[in-house]
Specification:
The protein has 579 residues and is of the alpha+beta class. It folds into three domains: 1-26 and 42-197, Serine Threonine Protein Phosphatase 5, Tetratricopeptide repeat (Alpha Horseshoe), CATH 1.25.40.10; 236-330; 405-578, Histidine kinase-like ATPase, C-terminal domain (Heat Shock Protein 90). Helices cover 74% and strands 7% of the residues. The chain has 18 helices and seven strands. The strands form two sheets. The chain has a five-stranded mixed β-sheet with strand order 2-4-5-7-6, with helices on one face. Strands 1-3 form a two-stranded antiparallel sheet. Helix 5 (107-122) runs parallel beside helix 7, helix 9 packs antiparallel against helix 10 (218-235) and helix 10 (218-235) packs antiparallel against helix 11 (238-254). The longest helix is centred in the middle third of the chain and has 115 residues, at 300-414. It starts with a helix and ends with a strand. The relative contact order is 0.05.
Length: 579
């Protein structure tokens, strides 16, 4: 048997037992009580549902509703999956992900991942199937969906189980890894089913896992099947009871306990006759199980009879698919023909109306818009020039006034003898000079309300160092060209002034080789300033806080920023605020 055939066989087994959980255990609300004579119409129904979903897709595109469009793309993937067109289904699932993934994790995304897992399993791409199953698991962990986690671990268990069956005879070591992963995922799925406190979900899991252990561990398969059967009996779940009886038939057949297998088969047949709730897959599965049982018992006549019924069901399905395809093509042809005819008439009428309106209005609108924009342009240009002149004159006057204030403070300083008073006036003079430097930059530059920190900070620092007799000190600058508004440049300059005054008074006088480093850069949307010296540091005790420290705190609050001091080695000041 070729490897491709093995892969397809394993994939069919996997989908038969866990396909209901690709939508988190919530299958489409379809009535399963279909009379036998209506069974061939299942394929036609699938095509009808596809056409309905295609119409929904057009409506969603017209509404431009991304949430609805993502759901309709997912439904189109399901429709094509039901028709066996897995390549087209995959494209729609991927489209659904493209719409939904930018919005973050959600249960809807988990469903799409599980559907893509199914798609890759059918295509024999087990490695890709495991990738999407793991993505579904991560997604459901993020959204904390217990039901989704149960379904994800169930599907992962199935993919690992397929890997085990595929590598069982080729690579024992790899097969062992897959088997261990299968057991782990199985336990996790059962755990979350118990967390949900939903007996039916737990019974479904045991029913599914019993099929996987039918050959490798018949006793465990029997235990799982009987547990599921007991729950289904209590819950009056007729579909679950029927499926459990068929699983018991398969298990007993594998153990060659034909009496028990026949008893279970008779119960399944009695159930089918009494309730008449079998869908197409259940009917064909019962016939296949019966064929396998009678073949193992050597009752070839009965085995051939049930095999013929299997072929009858398969032919009915093919016929339904053919009739459904023809019906879909006919409906699509008629719908497209009507839509094209209506669209053609609408287009012709729209073109005629547009031609009449455009010819009569275009010139008038163009003339009016041109006049309005020309007048607005001239008005705005005059206002801009006037405002620019006002701002420039304001900066010039502020600069001159600050210089006058600084000169007056200097004259007053020369007449003072009290050291404390002289120090206070000197510090005030430096603060005024810091603002004067800022306004000189504004007046001399092209920007009216912004200053370049890369040139403003060195000017400010050099003035303070010369004032305190450290003009020979060469600071280290790492400054990015940051243009900062004057409303924030003033408090920033005053903070640098306070820091350098303290450094000149306490840090540089206490060391033989004083050094100063200043960095200013953008990190994201925030400006980061660092001022560091190699002095002995200082105490940040609030009881000993000076006026300068109080002023730094007030200025930081004005900038809506955060600052901190680090004392070892030297003193380093960090400030960050929104630029």
């Amino acid at each position: 048997m070729g490897i491709a055939h093995v892969i397809r066989s394993i994939a069919r087994c996997f989908l038969l037992f866990i396909a209901p959980y690709f939508s988190y255990g919530q299958a489409d609300s379809v009535d399963l009580s279909i009379p036998k004579k209506v069974q061939p119409m299942i394929g036609s129904r699938n095509y009808t549902r596809l056409l309905e979903t295609q119409l929904d897709y057009r409506k969603a595109v017209a509404k431009k509703d991304s949430a609805e469009l993502g759901e309709v793309c997912y439904l189109l993937g399901k429709r094509y999956t039901a028709l066996g067109d897995f390549l087209t289904a995959k494209r729609w699932f991927i489209q659904s992900l493209r719409i939904r993934e930018p919005k973050g994790y959600s249960e809807a995304i988990g469903k799409v991942y599980l559907r893509l897992t199914e798609n890759h399993v059918v295509s024999g791409q087990f490695k890709e199937a495991r990738v999407y199953a793991r993505r579904a698991l991560v997604n459901n962990q993020k959204v904390q969906s217990v039901h989704g986690l149960m379904a994800s671990y169930l599907v992962l268990s199935g993919t690992y189980g397929l890997g085990y069956q595929l590598y069982e005879k080729q690579n024992k070591a790899q097969a062992k890894i897959f088997l261990d992963s299968t057991y782990y995922c199985e336990r996790q799925a059962i755990h979350y089913a118990r967390v949900m406190k939903a007996p039916n979900e737990l019974a479904n899991l045991y029913s599914i896992f019993s099929s996987g252990y039918r050959e490798s561990d018949p006793q465990r398969a029997m235990h799982y099947a009987n547990y599921a059967l007991s729950v289904y009996t209590k819950q009056h779940d007729y579909n679950g009871l029927f499926n459990s009886y068929l699983k018991l038939v398969s298990i007993y057949t594998g153990q060659r306990k034909f009496d028990r297998a026949l008893a279970a088969l008779q119960k399944a047949q009695k159930f089918a006759k009494a309730h008449q709730r079998l869908d197409f897959l259940q009917s064909i599965n019962m016939e296949k199980v019966s064929t396998d049982l009678y073949q193992n018992m050597g009752q070839w006549k009965d085995a051939f009879y049930h095999l013929e019924k299997v072929h009858t069901h398969e032919l009915a399905a093919l016929s339904a698919d053919r009739e459904g395809a023809l019906a879909r093509l006919e409906i699509e042809y008629e719908t497209q023909k009507k839509e094209l005819l209506l669209q053609s008439k609408n287009d012709e009428l729209a073109r005629r109306n547009q031609f009449i309106v455009l010819i009569s209005v275009l010139l008038l609108l163009t003339l009016l818009i041109s006049v309005v924009f020309f007048r607005l342009f001239r008005k705005n240009r005059r206002i801009s020039r006037w405002n620019a002149g006002l701002v420039s004159e304001q900066n010039h006057r502020v600069k001159n006034n600050l210089q006058v204030v600084s000169s007056l403070l200097g004259l007053h300083l020369s007449r003072l003898s009290d050291p404390v008073a002289k120090q206070a006036v000197e510090e005030s003079q430096l603060r005024v000079q810091a603002m004067a430097v800022l306004h000189r930059r504004l007046y001399d530059g092209d920007q009216l309300v912004k200053v370049n920190l890369a040139t403003y900070i060195p000017d400010l620092v050099n003035g303070i160092l010369q004032a305190y007799g450290f003009g020979t000190l060469q600071p280290v600058y790492q400054l990015q060209p940051i243009w900062l508004h004057v409303d924030k440049s003033v408090p920033l300059g005053l903070m640098i002034n306070e820091l350098l005054v303290n450094a000149c008074k306490y840090a540089f006088t206490a060391t033989e080789n004083p050094s100063l480093m200043i960095t200013c850069s953008y990190q994201g949307s925030r400006v980061h300033l660092t001022v560091a010296d190699n002095g002995p540091g200082f105490s940040e005790d609030p009881a000993n806080a000076s006026f300068g420290m109080w002023l730094i705190t007030m200025l930081a609050e004005q900038l809506e920023g955060a600052y901190e001091f680090q004392q070892h080695p030297g003193t380093t000041f960090h400030l960050s605020f929104n630029g």
